[in-house]
């Protein structure tokens, strides 16, 4: 799923063309957040596999760089999950409940900060000295926040519509 959303995101150009590294609107951040909230640390591992597949098949980089850039989202998701649990005292792994918009908003802010910071720490080493500016850090922070929030809202609306449709269909069958 992450691989698919990265491919879709390559065609979304808000404010400037997507350079393959940072964007003002990054849909895969939503996949990262939802997979982590739903599946916890196992969801974070799935994110790493999707990221690795994208890096190997679509970027011109060696195996070590691709692997390193795939570990960063896993660390970002895991650290965000841990920080969220510690800061809010809530856990999603022991008691399942549908995350509220407040839960997701808090988690998305934590994720966007951690993910942007970790990527910008790793980028210069993995990408052969290519430096990223404070503006690219801000751009990634905004992109992660907007992409994750947008995807969560879309899935929430879709789930609500499906639930309403199922209720309607069940009430029609009872008559």
The stretches of 5 or more residues where confidence is low (pLDDT under 50) are none
- DSSP summary, beta strand count: 0
Rg value: 18 Å
Order of helices and strands: HHHHHH
What overall form do the CA principal axes indicate? globular
Mean pLDDT: 81
Q: Span between N and C termini? A: 39 Å
| Proportion in β-strands | under 5%
Largest sheet: none
What does this structure look like?
Helix 3 (41-58) packs antiparallel against helix 4 (63-88) and helix 4 (63-88) packs antiparallel against helix 5 (101-126). The protein is mainly α and 175 residues long. The chain contains six helices and no strands. The radius of gyration is 18 Å and the shape is globular. The model has no long low-confidence stretch (mean pLDDT 81).
Summarize the structure.
This protein has 175 residues and is an all-alpha fold. Helices cover 75% and strands 0% of the residues.
């Amino acid at each position: 799923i992450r691989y698919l959303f990265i491919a879709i995101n390559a065609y979304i150009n808000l404010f400037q063309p997507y350079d393959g590294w940072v964007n003002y609107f990054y849909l895969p951040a939503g996949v990262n957040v939802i997979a982590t909230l739903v599946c916890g640390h196992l969801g974070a591992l799935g994110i790493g596999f999707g990221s690795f597949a994208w890096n190997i098949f679509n970027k011109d980089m060696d195996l070590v760089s691709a692997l390193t850039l795939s570990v960063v989202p896993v660390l970002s998701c895991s650290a965000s999950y841990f920080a969220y649990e510690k800061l809010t005292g809530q856990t999603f792994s022991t008691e399942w409940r549908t995350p509220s918009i407040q839960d997701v908003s808090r988690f998305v802010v934590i994720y966007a900060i951690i993910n942007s910071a970790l990527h910008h720490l790793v980028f210069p080493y993995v990408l052969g000295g290519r430096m990223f500016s404070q503006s690219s850090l801000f751009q990634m922070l905004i992109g992660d926040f907007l992409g994750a929030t947008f995807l969560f809202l879309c899935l929430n609306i879709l789930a609500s519509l499906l639930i309403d449709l199922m209720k309607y269909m069940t009430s029609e069958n009872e008559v």
